[in-house]
Amino acid sequence: MLQSKTFNKRTRGGRVQKVVREVYLRDDVYCKVTFCKQCDASEARVTAPSSTVLVLDTNVVLNQIDLLENPAIDDVVVLEVVREEVRNRNTSVYNRLKSLCENPSRRFVVFSNERHKDTAVKNMRGETPNDRNDRAIRMAAKWYQTHLGDAVKVLLVTNDKENKRKALDEGVSAETIESYVKSLGQPALLDLLVQPSSEDVIMDEAEDLRPLKRKIVYPEHKPMSEITSGLTRGIYHQGKLRVNRYNPFEAYVGSESIGDEIVIYGRGNMNRAFDGDIVAVELLPQDQWHDDKSLTLADEEDDDEDVRLAPSSADDAPRTTNPVSNSCNTNAVPSRPSGRVVGIIKRNWHSYCGSLEPMPLPAGSGGLVHALFVSKDRRIPKIRIHTRQLENLLDKRIVVAVDSWDRQSRYPSGHYVRSIGEIGDRDTETEVVLIENDIDARPFSAQVLACLPPLPWSVSPEDLNNPIRTDLRHLRVFSVDPPGCKDIDDALHCTLLPSGNFEVGVHIADVTNFVHPGTPLDDEATQRGTSVYLVERRIDMLPKPLTEDICSLRADVERLAFSVIWEMSPEAEIISTRYTKSVIKSCAALSYVEAQARMDDSRLMDPVTTDLRNMNALAKIMRQRRIQRGALTLASAEVKFQIDTETHDPLDIGMYQIREANQMVEEFMLAANVSVAEQILKQFPDCSLLRRHPTPTKEMLEPLLRTAAAVGLSLDVSSSKALADSLDRAVGDDPYFNKLIRIMATRCMTQAVYFCSGDLSPPEFFHYGLAAPLYTHFTSPIRRYADVFVHRLLAASLGIYKLPTIFRDRPQLTSVADNLNYRHRNAQMASRGSVELHTLIYFRKRPTDTEGRIIKMRSNGFIVFVPKYGIEGPVYLTTRSEKGGGEWFVDEQQQKIKKMDGSISYGILQTVQIHLEVVEPQPNRPKLQLTLL
Questions:
Q1: Is 401 helix (H, G, I), strand (E, B) or coil?
Q2: Are residues 737 and 885 in the same domain?
Q3: I need a labelling partner for 255 at 20 to 30 A (CA). Which of 75, 326, 355, 798 fits?
Q4: How far is residue 879's CA from residue 858's CA, in Å, rounded to a whole number?
């Protein structure tokens, strides 16, 4: 039977499009209940007659996914109409639902109700899409009830009053999710329920359960129609809110409309916005704008700052007071645009990790109590939850999700999701880092592992005889990596030709020979996006058999590769380039230290050492040429730990040392990436995956320019080459001075991002940091999915394979690029979080005095960078009790903070002696405290 299905779809341009599809209705769509005698049970997972079969409506799935993921909820039918509506409304929840349905250990099944002749519904004139879908859900629930008979109870779970009423009228059993959970007799499950927002009833600050008449705490958010109109007329400004990591009451919104960052000061002006929310901001009157000198560091005791509420009219808004008086500062320094949030355009709520604020246990146990959750991330406000298991949670790290934030509530409301483990346990705290950064560390599923070739794997005669593959086993190929590296995805060779030129090859693991488009393995890698490197372990994008054996270019074994081979002159000019799939056999897997030692030891004249020296000579020329073009040589504070192999605790900590060997490998990887970018863009100008580094704005570079001026330097930032030349000239008596300036320059840069070439014009492809008109990532497919994508493009450009269909779907390509950027950023943040955790562990029993450099001024202290350990943190000059005393003031022009009597002053980049010690000013929130000696 053929039936037309009509629905509305919003295009990327914002237009609503009517779509009509023809659906073939069938009678062989099975219920997937194991004991059903009428249906094929091959795909059945819903089990025993004694259980209740749950049919969920869309809102229950969207709002209660944390509860559904609990193993206590099973025997669930997910209707096709529900799954598609969830897919259209929330991609994150859809992926979690999809994971539940694919998990063989969970009893969740998908029923194609839109394709079954007895459950498909026709559209009715005048019926809304929501009403139509509710009717389809009720019809499917009724069919299940009739189909399974009295052998089992079928229950429609819905929180929609009207849908429930109609279901009961139609003879369908229906309950709310809360009612069903209560029937299970597991009170702890009730903690997982999302709490509805309440504008008129809330619990008081004493955490009891008495409803109070509430007063308004925050202004109302503007409706979306008014925000849109205000943005169009330039009254409001849109941007992402970023909360200062050293002061949770200070945030910034980058606004393209005014070409500057808008400072948002105080929780009142933030108006219930979270870090990462896309917000609409209204500028305050100019006499209420902030200078940099008036911005402060917030200490741990400031977490309960009273909300400073801006009245409904900006003209009446009170000035925000600052902890330290600046009345003696007569320097005329331009104020920074300041504003307040008037609406939330897109929320960034997700799950947060932390612990409950300590509180006395109430009389009796197991009763409902209200508690305040304190996130480990200070940028997140406290979250009010209710729980029936307070006694079990007080010493645990837990996960909490936000449900709502009413105008009458000082804190957002949320619900408990799950426990992670004991507070302070290293494994627990590491999992916190992963959850906070949305890193998927679960074991690979059976479906993913089934895509791998059986072990032991070796290059086959078919591989060697394949016409697409060149046999390069005769070449002297070697790899140079960090010590202990097992996932080796790049190797090199350098052969002197009779002409006096060099043949230089970059050989990259041929991951796409094993990871095929559309497979569960490829889908998993697409989602993960990148491998994540923590201090003590690695979380792989691909399963270990691939990353450490099948693909890894280990010494003395034959491996499949994708090679970029150049003929180069002794002056490192590229004469010709070729690309080929290949078979190689590495003769040596060297560490950076080993490679450097070989090059430095003049007694060694063996072939591999000679190749290394030749490559290093070429790399130095290539590097110099890049710098002359304007490539930046920046610096970062990379930290290296020595880890105890038994306890996994850090034994030593120090800055990561970069050697010539590192730079040599980097130079050839950069060259390979540029060559591949040119090749794929030439063949596929509209669908290549490239990487760009946007030019930083003048406003972004302003802190660097002010710092440089304060120490007598003049930096030219008119181009990347001008900045590079200025940085080269920025030298002082102190050998570390130049590196510090480069670290500060790095922090002023934008993030490099992946993009689809069809989405931008060629001038926007430019990579500012590398001064390269074109760039991509090709050289690390074991650990980055972007490189897998680029390998497929390169193979298609050479006619080896057909271009996969996804490359013809521009919106899908853009979505992949967006996910790669998100995953890359999260992996970076997780790595930093792991470093911070192990730094805390290291210093917990090792209070230390050391040297630091002042890198940023605030009105009550400064930010210090500690070169020896790569650590950065605030140093306070005033305490909470001294606020308002006016003891210090900031000279913004000279970048100094001075005592009022002139007896002491501290300047930017000045060396100071500090004491490092782990303290816990708030329960369960240890921090590394930096104190001035």
A1: strand
A2: no
A3: 326
A4: 14
Closest CA to 536 of 842, 838, 918: 838
Q: What angle do CA 393, 394, 397 make, to 5 degrees?
A: 65
Taking a C-beta distance cutoff of 8 angstroms, is the pair 67, 401 a contact? no
- 369 φψ region: left (φ > 0), alpha (ψ -120 to 50), beta (else): beta
Distance CA 352, CA 517 (A): 34
Indicate whether 99 and 123 sit together in one domain: yes
Partnered with residue 691 across adjacent β-strands are: 754
CA atoms within 13 A on the CB side of 309: 12
Provide the CATH number for the domain around residue 411. 2.40.50.700
Q: Is the distance from CB of 913 to CB of 354 less than 8 angstroms?
A: no
Return all residues near 179 (Cβ < 8 A) that are at least 6 apart.
none
**Rounded to an integer, what is the distance from CA 167 to the centroid of its chain?**
42
- Please tell me whether residues 513 and 630 are part of one structural domain: yes
What element of type H or E holds 587? strand 574-591
DSSP state of 833: H
User: Which residues are 396's β-sheet partners?
Assistant: 422
Place of tokens 């002010």: 706
d(CA 905, CA 891): 10
Backbone φ/ψ region at 644: left (φ over 0), alpha (ψ -120 to 50), beta: beta
Domain that holds residue 18: 2-185
C-alpha atoms less than 13 angstroms from C-alpha of 110 in its C-beta half-sphere: 16
Task: For residue 8, count CB atoms less than 10 angstroms from its CB and return exposed for 0-12, middle for 13-18, buried for 19 or more.
Answer: exposed
Alpha helices in 494-606 (DSSP H): 520-528, 544, 592-600
Query: Where does residue 494 rank: exposed (0-12), middle (13-18), buried (19+ CB within 10 A)?
Result: buried
Q: Which of 320, 346, 372 is the last residue of a domain?
A: 346
Interior angle at CA 862, CA 858 and CA 868, nearest 5: 155
- 3-state SS class at 758: helix
Residue type present at position 376:
K
Rounded-to-integer distance, Cα 691 and Cα 785, Å: 13
Please check whether residue 218 lies inside any domain of the structure.
no
**Based on the structure, what is the number of domains in the chain?**
6
Please report the pLDDT score of residue 891 as a whole number: 78
Q: What is the DSSP letter of 579?
A: E
Residues 6 or more apart in contact with residue 26 via CB below 8 angstroms: 1, 115, 116, 117
Looking at residue 295, its pLDDT comes to 61
In the chain, what is the greatest distance between 2 CA atoms, to the nearest angstrom?
93
Residue 172 domain flag: yes
Please tell me what DSSP assigns to residue 784. Answer: B
The Cα 7–Cα 20 span in angstroms is 7
What secondary structure letter does DSSP report for 693?
A: B
What is the phi/psi pair of residue 203, to 5°? -90, 150
Structure tokens at 461: 């005669």
Structure confidence at residue 292 (pLDDT): 61
Answer whether 339's CB lies under 8 Å from 237's CB: yes
pTM over cut 0.70: yes
> Do 790 and 860 belong together in one domain?
no
Q: What is the tens place of the pLDDT at every residue in 396-447?
A: 999 999 999 998 899 999 999 999 999 989 999 999 999 999 999 999 989 9
pLDDT at 732: 73
Distance CA 36, CA 152 (A): 10
Contact 852, 293 (CB under 8 A): no
**Ranges of residues in the chain whose predicted pLDDT is under 70:** 1-24, 27, 48-50, 196-214, 291-334, 364-366, 879-886
